[in-house]
Specification:
The complex is a heterodimer of chains A (382) and B (170). Chain A is mainly alpha-helical. Helices cover 65% and strands 2% of the residues of chain A. The chains are: A mainly alpha (382), B mainly alpha (170). At the A-B interface, helix 6, helix 7 and helix 8 of A face helix 2, helix 3 and helix 5 of B.
């Protein structure tokens, strides 16, 4: 089966991988929107979406009502609604950039997924092979670089809408996203200082970070969230700001900006912004998992290799691959739940508070953290 | 394939760069700047200098050009009328064009002087080599550029803040 796949021509494999990204991330982002509604309902003590069901499915005895109560069909109803609604383009907008903005939103959201390793298996000589669409050597840099282009969709949407609230949203987005990028980038440097020991080959690959968290021994098996808690906290807070999640959703804060940068958008174009936001969350959670939560290792101090020996899966690359993907996705889902939990618990910041937190608290903290760890790592690795 | 891509990115970069200068709408101009930067990043990637390509995208594409757009939006700049050329402008632009021409001509490959491509160290290709060069061979230029940026930043703070009494300086 593997041979058949790898014997396909290169362009066909590329097309298949591209389609895989779209067909995995799009439904996953849709599922996130449903989960968001269910989680918010759960936190606020109400049932949440529990009505929609195709009439013929209601005849299925136990499964029908169960899925109805879980609100699974609202997902499809929502998707169909976005597709079949009228597409309004207000008369006062700059049409070219107005239509371009949601398209630009999708590009970084989908292309960063390709460099995220999401699982691993062992080849016949028991070497660990990470699973990724493109296992590049500068993984984290590629993700930061491409996702930093996402700010253009918000700015252009705000500018092209040519009305006050979207404009304010666009201006806020550009300032906020650039401010938190600094703290975010500085916070992960200690991780890469540690894995780039003087005698090791230089790399920024995310798969190598996971390898360093699955070594034998006490310090080898420690996840970086325990070894570098401050980095993890700064990265997490910046992630909230970069993905425009509450308490940082200044660009679209409904209370004072109606809908922020997407006030003038409707139907499918609006849903593209929505999907982009959730796929940013998915990629962000995946990167956090890889950097700080041990990637596809099931537990701290229990690496995938040891786990595979325990359950005798070392020689079953297919099953072990699926198991490792399951472990990885499980961690991502927990983080996504954390995102939603925070959103429905913490109130929104004021804009000056967002700026103050970014520049006066997180940035000095990240610099201090970097210097402290740089000295510590230099002493330990000497 | 590689030649085709090189031609594509080279033409793309130059066309977008011309677009930056020609466009009267400031938003269009900054979007052209972004596309031009992406073209340059593509050229770096073709040279296998992936590190440089992504650093260019991260710093200039993701932050600098976005800040240009931010300023354009904040000041709401319209095309407006251009003041007529003064004589000083003409002299300055002629001198600048001449300097540019001399610079380009001095780069013209002369037989036997340029090293073969294989001999040029691929500094941009490897992370470790790049960092090592920055902290050894190119340490002075890096420090000078950092100092220049610091001066520019101090200038902005002085210009944008109104200092009236001793109280304001604190």
């Amino acid at each position: 089966m593997f041979d058949f796949y790898f014997n396909l021509p290169f362009w066909l494999r590329s097309v298949l991988q591209g389609l895989a990204v779209i067909f995995v991330i799009f439904p996953l982002a849709g599922a996130c929107s449903l989960a968001e509604r269910k989680v918010s309902a759960w936190i606020q003590g109400r049932p949440g979406p529990n009505r929609a069901i195709p009439f013929w499915f209601a005849w299925v005895p136990v499964l029908g009502p169960l899925l109805q109560r879980l609100g699974v069909f609202h997902l499809m109803a929502d998707g169909a609604k976005f597709l079949f609604k009228e597409e309004p383009v207000p008369g006062h907008v700059n049409k070219f950039y107005f239509i371009l903005a949601p398209v630009i939103a999708m590009i970084p959201a989908f292309s960063t997924v390709t460099v995220v390793p999401f699982g691993a298996y062992f080849d016949p000589s028991h070497r660990l092979i990470p699973l990724a669409l493109a296992n590049v050597d500068i993984g984290i840099l590629a993700i930061f670089a491409v996702s930093s282009l996402g700010v253009y969709s918000l700015i252009l949407a705000g500018w092209a809408s040519n009305s006050k609230y979207p404009f304010l949203g666009g201006v806020r987005a550009s300032a906020q996203l650039i401010s938190y990028e600094l703290a975010m980038t500085l916070s992960v440097i200690p991780v890469f200082l540690w894995i780039n020991a003087p005698d090791a080959p230089a790399t920024l690959s995310l798969a190598t970070v996971v390898e360093f968290q699955s070594k034998p021994g006490f310090w080898g098996g420690t996840w970086f969230i325990f070894a570098m808690p401050l980095s993890a906290i700064i990265f997490m807070i910046s992630l909230f700001a970069e993905t425009n999640r509450q308490p940082f959703d200044m660009p679209e804060s409904e209370a004072d900006l109606v809908g922020g940068f997407h006030t003038e958008y409707g139907a499918f174009k609006w849903s593209l912004f929505f999907v982009a936001e959730y796929s940013h969350m998915i990629v962000g959670s995946a990167v956090f998992t890889l950097l700080f939560l041990g990637g596809w290792n099931p537990l701290p101090w229990l690496s995938l290799a040891k786990f595979a020996e325990l359950v005798h899966l070392v020689d079953q690359p297919l099953i072990l691959g699926l198991v490792s993907i399951g472990i990885f996705l499980g961690k991502v889902v927990v983080l996504l739940f954390f995102f939603m939990w925070v959103r429905w618990t913490v109130p929104r910041f004021r804009y000056d508070q967002v700026m103050k937190l970014g520049w006066q608290k997180l940035l000095p903290l990240a610099i201090f953290n970097l210097i402290a760890y740089a000295i510590g790592i230099a002493v330990i690795q000497k | 394939m590689s030649d085709l891509l090189f031609n594509f990115f080279a033409v793309f970069t130059v066309v977008c760069a011309v677009g930056v200068v020609v466009n009267k709408n400031a938003v269009n101009a900054s979007m052209c700047l972004l596309l031009s930067l992406i073209g340059v990043a593509g050229l770096f990637a073709l040279l296998e200098a992936y590190l440089l390509a992504f650093v260019l995208l991260l710093v200039y594409g993701g932050a600098v050009a976005a800040l240009f757009l931010f300023i354009v939006m904040l000041l709401d700049m319209q095309g407006g009328k251009r003041p007529p050329f003064k004589r000083a402008t003409l002299v300055a632009s002629t001198v600048a064009a001449g300097l540019l021409a001399v610079g380009v001509l001095s780069l013209r490959p002369q037989a036997g002087q340029l090293p073969a491509p294989a001999e040029i160290p691929a500094i941009g290709a490897s992370l470790k080599l790049y960092a090592y060069q920055l902290f050894t061979t190119y340490l002075l230029p890096v420090q000078i550029i950092g100092f220049l940026l610091l001066i520019a930043m101090l200038g902005v703070i002085v210009l944008s803040k109104k200092f009236e009494g001793v109280e304001d300086i604190k």
